Amino acid sequence: MPAAPTVNLLYADSLRLTDCRRCNNPPFHKRTVPMKKISMAAALIGLVLTACSGGQQTAAESSAHSSGQQTAAESSAPSSHTASDKLNIYNWSDYVDPATLEAFEKNTHINVRYDYYDSNEALEAKLLTGKSGYDLVAPSIANVGRQIKAGAYQKIDKSQIPNYANIDADLLAMMAKVDPGNQYAVPYFWGINTLAINKKLVQKALGTEQLPENEWDLVFNPEYTKKLKSCGISYFDSAIEQIPLALHYLGKDPNTENPDDIKAAVNMMKKVRPDIKRFTSSGYIDDMAAGNLCVSVGYGGDLNIAKTRAQEAKNGVEIEVLAPKSGVGIWVDSLMIPRDAQNTANAHKYINHTLDPEVAAQNGNFVTYAPASRPARALMDEKYTGDASIFPTKELMDKSFIVSPKSTDASRLSVRLWQSLKAGK
Asked: Which of 117, 185, 316, 331 lies 20 to 30 Å (CA to CA) from residue 167?
């Protein structure tokens, strides 16, 4: 067992309050970004071109890896630890099809303990101790770089992951910006920060079916927010997610660390603050599904979950998840092995399992996010692969940005201004 490190993560005192992607209603009983927009353009364009074309470039075609198509049950590899029948996973909820987890347990005879967190901050706090108690976690791209530098993770052993060859090569190129050589992080899902509307309520509030040319006007332009206030608007409860969207709306660098630009974005949102009903990074799922909100900023997959829940409830709520042509925020979540992990061989088996095309497609259909396994896309339901809020078009990707890590000073300023905004000051 490797010694538990002393983890010293930067700006731990300035973490955003909530980043609750996929943290609503755990689905099964077991549960108890440094890059600038320009530097990521090539990877973003490549990602969407291969997603939309017949090309099937994977990690196998950009490295010497062979293209294995094994599931975890078929893969056995040596481990630095004594073999065990346990695996401890700490992940976002609603982020795996329970059936795929049950199949993994049945095929490998590994007992999985699956706990969930509601924010990257909760995960980081656990890792900060150096004694997480978990074998696999799934941080977002904006957190990965500094956590690696802090010694929070073990390197992965790609020889134990035959299905690593299935990973979208463009996702690996993105992750290499924060994980040079792709030594620690294995991409799991990627998605967008966008917004959704309750079509009937929005039409009633605006008096027309016509949406503004820039759909972000719905949440940032007082001309629209004053009208939509009556049916409910929600923002992310996250400075690191919401402020970049506001910066992008203003035509500024979404990942700027210029204090004046950050202040300008917050001041712009202060003008519409009286019209914002909720700040939430999870509650909007059920609120949108129930018709308690008419416009919500959120994670694309979560907004699609809200849409699905409304359809299943047959409550008359019609949700449309938008993909504004002016651009959205892009993120990548990866599976990583904490430094104190005890069951690393089993962790590698599970990673391999998630990259199997059929498993990845099944998980993708369940969580309504784009899987890292490129062959999986051809196996997913067409209603998802053809949805720009799940698989963005080239035109949208050209206008979009990666949600990137921030310095200590920029993070502290953002959090302070954000708390003031929420308080209505």
From this structure: 117
> Which residue in this structure is represented by tokens 């900060």?
128
1-21 pLDDT per residue, tens: 333 333 433 333 333 333 444
Distance of CA 161 to the CA centre of its chain: 22
Q: How far is CA 109 from CA 60, 103, 350, in A?
A: 29, 10, 12
Alpha carbon distance 235, 3 (integer Å): 41
Please say whether the beta carbons of 407 and 13 come within 8 A. no
Separation between Cα atoms, residue 181 and residue 56, nearest integer Å? 22
Nearest 5°: the CA angle 350, 354, 355 is 120
pLDDT digits (tens, 9 = 90+) for 62-98: 443 333 444 433 333 334 455 799 999 999 878 999 9
**Angle, alpha carbons 360-109-74 (nearest 5°):** 50
pTM: 0.79
